[in-house]
């Protein structure tokens, strides 16, 4: 005899709830919605344990350090070439007037290894302006 859709996942739901997973995580693992997992868990008598798991998960999430919005957009990596890092240190030590820089100079800094974030930090040039300057300098070279 064929088992029904809900009964088919009962063991996985019980196991997930006992392991401390949320209904969303259990639903992802069995390919069902979290609402289905919650309803089925209530039918199985696991309502209190599901609520406890959700509370523990929310409490853990509130203790995690918050990520600043701009930080998500940055790609953090280690430079392979030390010359770009040295250039950034020199530019930070002696600020340059961004208005005096030509588009060609911005493109040269970028080719030397400065990222858009470095250009913004050291020279005060917003990334959108830096991208436009780099693009125009590249088009002028062709």
Key traits:
single chain, about 140 residues, mainly alpha, 2 domains
How is this fold's topology laid out?
Elements: H1 5-8, H2 10-18, H3 23-30, H4 34-43, H5 47-63, H6 69-73, H7 82-93, H8 103-111, H9 116-123, H10 127-141
**How many strands, what sense, and barrel or not for the largest sheet?**
none
The radius of gyration is 27 Å
> Helix proportion of residues, in percent?
55-70%
CA-CA gap between termini: 72 Å
Brief account:
The protein is mainly alpha-helical. The protein has helices at residues 5-8, 10-18, 23-30, 34-43, 47-63, 69-73, 82-93, 103-111, 116-123, 127-141.
Please characterize this protein's 3D structure:
Helix 3 (23-30) crosses helix 4 and helix 8 crosses helix 10. The chain folds into two domains: 5-63; 73-141, no CATH class. The model has no long low-confidence stretch (mean pLDDT 81). By secondary structure, it is mainly alpha-helical. The protein has helices at residues 5-8, 10-18, 23-30, 34-43, 47-63, 69-73, 82-93, 103-111, 116-123, 127-141. It starts with a helix and ends with a helix. It is built from ten helices and no strands.
């Amino acid at each position: 005899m064929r088992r029904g859709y809900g009964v088919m996942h009962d063991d996985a739901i019980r196991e997930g709830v006992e392991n401390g997973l949320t209904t969303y995580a259990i639903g992802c693992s069995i390919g069902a919605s979290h609402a289905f997992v919650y309803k089925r868990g209530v039918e199985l008598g696991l309502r209190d344990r599901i609520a406890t798991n959700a509370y523990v998960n929310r409490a853990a999430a509130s203790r995690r350090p918050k990520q600043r919005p701009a930080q998500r957009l940055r790609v953090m990596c280690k430079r392979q070439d030390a010359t770009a890092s040295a250039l950034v240190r020199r530019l930070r030590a002696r600020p340059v007037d961004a208005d005096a820089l030509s588009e060609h100079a911005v493109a040269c800094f970028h080719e030397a290894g400065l990222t858009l974030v470095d250009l913004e930090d050291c020279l005060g040039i917003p990334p959108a302006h830096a991208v436009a300057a780099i693009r125009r300098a590249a088009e002028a070279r062709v």
